[in-house]
Amino acid sequence: MSMTATDLYETTVGLEIHVELATASKMFCGCPVTFGQEPNTRTCPVCLGLPGSLPVANERAVEHTMKIALALDCRIAEHSLFHRKNYFYPDMPKNYQISQYDLPLGYAGAVEITGGFGTTRVGITRVHLEEDTGKSIHVGGSGRIHDSHYSLEDFNRAGTPLVEIVTEPDIHSAEEARAFVNELRALLESLGVSDVRMEEGSLRVDANVSVRRAGETAHGVKVEVKNMNSVRSVGRALEYEQERQRKALESGERLIQETRHFDEKSGTTSSGRAKEVSSDYRYFAEPDLVPFEPTAEWIERIKSSLPELPAARRERFVAQYGLGSADVEVLTSTTSLADWFEAAAAAYKGEPKKVVNWIVADLFRLLNEAGIEVGAAKISPAQLARLVELVDSGAISGKQAKQVLGDMFATGNDPEAIAAERGMQQISDEGALDLVVAEVIEQNPGVADKVRGGNIGPLGFLVGQVMKKTKGQANPGLVNDLLRSKLVE
Amino acid sequence: MPIDRAAVDHVARLARLDLSEQERRRMSDELGKILEHAERIQALALDGVEPTSHAVAIRNVMRPDEARPSLTQEEALSNAPVAEGGRFSVPRILEEEE
């Protein structure tokens, strides 16, 4: 194997992820947490930092943070504190952010990710709770901060509960970083603690990236990359940044420790130029908020309230439904999709794999074309199950079923109704079918005996024979019922 | 022992304080005394004494996650020196490059 440029260098990445919690009220006051309101209509003396106001911690936000920490296999601190992080910036009305410093709620966890790179264990340094800032609009010049004339501040978001998750520098490629963010997003979604929408900023990812020559023990110069607004951007930004640093090392250029912003359009990172804030934060314990010392009972109660996490669900999908890892990966990418599949599999009488094929191939195409998530689709899991059963029974062909699915997706109507409407006729006259059913039983005495003996398996074969005799026009549900009433009950 | 002038200037800049020459001299003196006091405490044998961040022994104070009415936009902006379009208007954030 020949050495490539990639083999000569090693990339090290640590991620810092901010997650806005889905609570009804802000972290330290009762202002509602909502999106898209008129500016400065969700503020009060506490989140505006007016003199004399006092913060009180939001219980659900604290519990959500503990949930996240436990799901990331962290330890929960016996003694945890809020600190003031002091700096001046107009989007922060108090001139300090209430955050956590050396005593975060959760620490020393880990997440396993898998992909083309194999399996990597990513350590979680800490999980802490803080408050979000307001939002700035820069006016004048190009509309960017560097050449604007002044800025406008909206504090509706200020004080929204924000969880910060910091990983160990255990990530060594853009692919691993993407896999980690995907895994974390699925995990947070399953916990129901956040909207996890990267585009809307409820999940924000910053990366510390350094490159060194292979074999060196000291880390390279650390560059912080910000402004990555999708999982795809995380991958693109890291690929660009590691290449930039490699080239610099190759040409002997000196890299500097700095913050760089990813530009979606050009796919490049650029230096933040002017220094925005001092990094001398003079942390000190927040005097207005007393310490947290979660009791063993409290931690246990939260632990037992955790839902099935994505990793466990993937294992169960393999064991319970006999699916391959590629199918499982797709189906568990979001909690809502996994839920939808399970509802369809529960309603479906045949092999779950058949339902998977319809979801992954045909339903996904329709969802992509419509640009919606499965949860927003008109078709229900039970309806898809019935559609596949129509094909299984021979009532309609696979090709016809694709047309029916298109109609179901557009209208939300039942597959049987659509098939009938489209002239994919079925015989639902009980008297007429009864004769055919009797005939099939007579012609297949061995199979009929098996079913009588309690082996339901071959029932599908008999249904198929009836369908064949009726040229696929019999109502399979009715045939099924008739056969059962004659052989089983 | 007074702390050096550069440290006073640094802390003043972080706190956005514009100190006169006289104030800087006084701060140098007072901050020095505070640090001396901290040094005296640090010199004590305090093994086994838990650090104290709060003078009260209360723990785990929280409120239920319930939304309450906010101020109106007019109320929120009533102390703003300048407002525009329902937002607080603030001077240019980044200084000219030095």
Account of the 3D structure:
The complex is a heterodimer of chains A (489) and B (98). Chain A is an alpha+beta fold. Chain A has 3 domains: 6-302, no CATH class; 308-421, no CATH class; 430-487, Arc Repressor Mutant, subunit A (Orthogonal Bundle), CATH 1.10.10. Chain A contains 16 helices and 15 strands. In chain A, a hairpin with a 2-residue loop joins strand 6 and strand 7 (118-131). Chain A is elongated. Chain B has 98 residues and is mainly alpha-helical. Chain B has a domain at 5-42: Histone, subunit A (Orthogonal Bundle). The longest helix of chain B has 22 residues, at 21-42. The model of chain B has no long low-confidence stretch (mean pLDDT 91). At the A-B interface, strand 2, helix 2, strand 8 and strand 9 of A face strand 1, helix 3 and strand 3 of B.
Characteristic key phrases:
heterodimer, A: 489 residues, alpha+beta, Arc Repressor Mutant, subunit A, 3 domains, nine-stranded mixed sheet, three-stranded antiparallel sheet, 15 strands, 19% strand, elongated, B: 98 residues, mainly alpha, Histone, subunit A, two-stranded antiparallel sheet, 3 helices, 3 strands
Mean pLDDT of chain B: 91
Chains forming the largest contact: A-B, 56 and 36 residues
CATH fold call of the domain at 5-42 in chain B: Histone, subunit A
In the predicted model, the low-confidence regions of chain A spanning at least 5 consecutive residues are none
Number of strands of chain A: 15
| SS summary, helix count of chain B | 3
Compose a concise summary of this entry:
The complex is a heterodimer of chains A (489) and B (98). Chain A has 16 helices and 15 strands. Chain A is an alpha+beta fold.
